[in-house]
Design a protein that fits this description.
heterodimer; A: mainly alpha; MetI-like fold; elongated; B: 8-stranded mixed β-sheet; 6-stranded mixed β-sheet; 20 helices; ATP binding (chain B); ATP hydrolysis activity (chain B)
Chain lengths: ~300, ~600
């Protein structure tokens, strides 16, 4: 049946050899992504197995944790990362603090991302009155100082880790919404969306099958960028007394408690700071790789 | 402003020049030019061992299909290769004895614009949208000649006059978006020629323009060449344009020169098989194969697949006080036609005439007034579910097959999608059907797992066709569906469309600006102008006996791919096409169509 027309010469280049098909498998071939994954895994394991990894209670003010003059100890054989101003073991505080920071960085940030994406997609796709209303509300939220809003929200609810996470999610979705909105509104005008409509495709189909996959790279980038922002926002809130309540450690509040003593005891700021940096970087690396792996148009163009 | 002509310095180089150069000192000589792009599998040549010489006042056409390396040649001469992706791997480009490949960026910049100028395909993107055209022209003149602003301004006005822009003085203050496509391309030509370069490289200068405008721009180029003695390298895929313009022709394919020769000889006696194939694939008016089923006049017509009556599409424009609707775009103004099963109706016209809007209205993409009756069911007054069912019978193929396929989906899923949307066939069965469709349109079923970017343009259009066929529609609306394809690919896709029609009895509404293609595929033709049909009839009626002046002008403007039939002067539009934007309440007059015999309708 087909031999009546000469088939077109196959110009498309020979396919690059196909490696493992799964996303994980393809991710595993990128060394940087593996480094990122390892760091994330380390942080998660550290948080989960904190009690087994350190002999000290993070909140216990140890007598031997301070010098005779009452100054904190630098890293040494007994306290691997040194101690803080109250003589608490820094390693223990960082390990336990990972629990708080991971919840904030992943859950709060994830929720913020989800809200932002939803608002952005709906406003960008439907436009009209609904879109305008949603975006003006987003503008309002953007114009409002995030910290002030967080303080108000935190003052209304009783401070706890989950409330803090919720508060952070509620102030952090706006940037995502804005970016997703812009991208959706340009995607919605692409010809393939018209082509879908001409086939009779309904709105849910176009939104979920044809718009959302294209937003993935943006969402991933904003998600990874948001991790460090949210971890630090939590620290700010904790510092103002409306975040995680002391003495519960979090990476952010360790930094804030100790930043005034930075010159005398630099390790107190350096180690938690390094932990935040490493986690943010790790998510960035994984996010980057994930974006490339999930993009079929990049197939065969290994970075 | 006039630069002293430089004496040719490279007499020693003359001996090495390839044959075929006309007498006299060549202005530009390209010797053994090789350009490579670095790919994942090592460097791949995109221009390989190309040599030619360009005489003074000569027009050399480089013809070839996409990917043949013709544009890369132009960029290499301009020193504008997209680094680091592409680089010069060897050869020399001599301009008056200097080897351009050896020059640094600074020296090259002085040559660009001054000695060699280039105009690009898309005039809108090559003009800066936020500067007036006057300022851009003045700047170009100032930079290269160092004359004062006043003098540069005079030069700019003079250049605009030279390209026959009316009211040149006041046009200087206009921004690019205020000009029509043809005007913009003229501004580009003015800019290129303001400095009286020795060589003008025109890369597809008329591809983005309507045929009638294309003729004017080509004629302008010819006149200016006569006046200034500029040598022109014209890069085009359109053999009609080649025949109209070229003194000599180089045919390129896959980075290499396939054939070179004087235009007349090359068209009359092509030597290389590729040139023969290329010329054979060019659609020509008057050579359309006789349609297998010309409906005898007077025979009882079968019930039409689609009946369009008084279709009107208007878009509101807002502005002024309180942002109220104050103007309307009258895109389509009350057009009526019908399409029988197994019939192809073509809508032709220039950009902005409303042909694509008509297609979109029928496909349900824009709201309209009037009646669209598909297989006896009027779409107006149906609820969503019923309308969706009727829409199954109408499918659309878009102009750009890449833009109309979701790049993140596998092509197999894309072709299966219409069946999924309309709940046709079970999942497993769909796969088999998709495989069969792939086979039917000339693709192999094992390509189903690939993504759209892995296919060539023609293959992608086949995927779109498979997708449109998936629901066995009664009508396929093809909106400029072959315009973006190379001629040889175009010929194959058209053949496929004809075959599918014969096999499934599909009716086509074929929308195109290309008269030659229309002549090839249509049973009936409707000519649109400013949202209304000005003439409609069978293909033979329209092409052998065009009655409306606009139809005649459209047909005459098509360049004929035969240098022996070169026209001295192109038909000229007396003015730009009037705007379809009108203030509220100022409705255009409806044209009355008069039957001049055998259903050949002409607007009075």
């Amino acid at each position: 049946m087909t031999d009546r027309i000469a088939p077109e010469p196959v110009i498309a280049a020979a396919r690059p050899p196909r490696g493992p098909q799964s996303v994980i498998g393809r991710l595993a071939r990128r060394p940087l992504a593996l480094v990122g994954l390892a760091i994330i895994l380390l942080a998660v394991l550290g948080a989960v197995f904190a009690p087994w990894l350190t002999a000290y209670d993070p909140n216990e003010q140890l007598f031997e944790g301070l010098t005779l003059e009452g100054a904190p100890l630098p890293p040494n054989a007994q306290f691997l990362l040194g101690t803080d101003l109250l003589g608490r073991d820094l390693l223990a505080r960082i390990l336990y603090g990972a629990r708080t920071s991971l919840v904030i960085g992943i859950v709060a940030n994830g929720v913020a991302l989800a809200i932002g994406t939803l608002v952005g997609v709906v406003a960008g796709f439907f436009r009209g009155l609904l879109g305008a209303a949603l975006m003006r509300f987003t503008d309002l939220m953007m114009a409002f100082p995030a910290l002030l809003l967080a303080i108000c929200l935190a003052a209304i609810f009783r401070p706890s880790l989950w409330i803090v996470a919720m508060v952070i999610a509620l102030v952090n979705w706006v940037q995502t919404a804005r970016v997703v909105y812009t991208e959706t509104s340009s995607l919605a005008r692409r010809e393939f969306v018209d082509a879908e409509r001409s086939l009779g495709a309904g709105t849910p189909r176009i939104l979920f099958l044809h718009i959302l996959p294209h937003l993935l790279p943006t969402i991933i980038v904003w998600g990874t960028l948001g991790i460090s922002t949210t971890v630090l926002l939590e620290a700010t809130l904790s510092y103002l007394g409306i975040g995680v309540q002391p003495p519960t450690p979090s990476w952010g509040n360790i930094i804030f408690e100790n930043q005034t003593y930075f010159q005398a005891a630099p390790w107190l700021v350096f180690f938690p700071g390094a932990a935040i940096l490493a986690l943010a970087l790790a998510f960035n690396l994984v996010g980057d790789a994930l974006r490339d792996v999930l993009d079929p148009t990049q197939r065969g163009r290994l970075a | 402003m006039r630069r002293a002509a430089e004496p040719g310095a490279g007499t020693a180089e003359r001996a090495k020049l390839p044959s075929g150069a006309p007498g006299g000192e060549p202005v530009l000589a390209v010797e053994d030019l090789t350009v490579v792009v670095g790919g994942a599998e090592g460097p791949r040549p995109v221009v390989s061992g190309l040599s030619f010489a360009l005489g003074r006042g000569e027009t050399l056409c480089i013809a070839g299909e996409s990917g043949s390396g013709k544009s890369m040649t132009a960029l290499a001469i301009m020193g504008l290769l997209p680094r680091p992706a592409a680089r010069l791997a060897g050869g020399a480009i001599r301009l008056g004895g200097r080897d351009l490949t050896k020059l640094g960026e600074g020296a090259m910049r002085r040559i660009r614009g001054d000695r060699i100028a280039m105009i690009f395909q898309e005039p809108m993107t090559s003009l800066n949208p936020v500067l007036t055209i006057g300022r851009q022209l003045v700047e170009a003149i100032e930079t290269h000649t160092g004359v004062g602003r006043g003098e540069a301004r005079m030069g700019a006005v003079e250049a605009l006059r030279a390209v026959r822009i009316p009211e040149a003085e006041s046009r200087m203050g206009h921004y690019p978006h205020e000009l029509s496509g043809g005007m913009r391309q003229r501004v580009m030509i003015a800019m290129a020629l303001a400095l009286r370069p020795d060589v003008l490289i025109a890369d597809e200068p008329t591809t983005a323009l309507d045929v009638t405008v294309q003729g004017e721009v080509l004629e302008l180029l010819r006149d200016l060449q006569r006046a200034f003695g500029t040598s022109i390298i014209l890069i085009t895929h359109d053999m009609g344009v080649v025949a109209e313009m070229a003194d000599r022709v180089i045919v390129m394919r896959e980075a290499r020169m396939v054939e070179e020769g004087p235009a007349g000889e090359l068209f009359a006696r092509p030597k290389a098989p590729y040139t023969k194939a290329l010329l054979a694939a060019v659609p020509r008016i008057g050579t359309g194969a006789a349609r297998p089923h010309p409906r005898p006049a007077g025979e009882r017509k079968p019930a039409p697949v689609a009946l369009v009556k008084d279709l009107t599409v208007r878009f509101d424009l807002r502005g002024g006080f309180l942002n109220r609707v104050n103007r309307r775009v009258h895109a389509v103004e009350g057009i009526s036609f019908e399409i029988a099963p197994n019939e192809t109706l073509s809508l032709v016209g220039e950009s902005g005439c409303g042909k694509s809007t008509t297609a979109k209205a029928i496909a349900g993409l824009v709201p309209y007034a009037g009646d669209v009756v598909i297989a006896g069911r009027n779409l107006a007054g149906l609820d969503r579910r019923q309308a969706k069912a009727v829409r199954r019978d109408v499918q659309m193929i878009f102009q750009d097959p890449f833009a109309s396929l979701d790049p993140r989906m596998r092509v197999g899923d894309l072709v299966a999608e219409p069946m999924a949307i309309h709940g046709v066939a079970a999942r497993a069965e769909r796969r088999d059907r998709v495989a069969a469709l792939f086979g039917r349109v000339g693709l192999s079923p094992d390509q189903m797992e690939r993504y759209p970017h892995e296919f060539s343009g023609g293959q992608r259009q086949r995927i779109c066709i498979a997708r449109a066929l998936a629901l066995r529609p009664k009508l396929i609306v093809a909106d400029e569906s072959v315009s973006a394809l190379d001629v040889s690919v175009q010929a194959r896709v058209l053949a496929l469309l004809r075959e599918l029609q014969a096999e499934f009895g599909i009716a086509y509404l074929f929308i195109s600006h290309d008269m030659a293609v229309v002549e090839n595929i249509s049973d009936r033709v409707a000519v649109m102008y400013l949202g209304q049909i000005v003439e409609t009839g069978t293909r033979d009626q329209i092409f052998s006996n065009p009655q409306h002046p606009y139809t005649r002008r459209l047909i005459e403007a098509v360049p004929v791919p035969d240098p022996a039939r070169r026209r001295r002067a192109f038909p000229r539009m007396d003015r730009d096409m009037p705007s379809p934007v009108r203030p509220l309440g100022d409705e255009p007059a409806r044209l009355a169509l008069r039957d001049i015999g055998d259903a050949h309708l002409v607007a009075a």
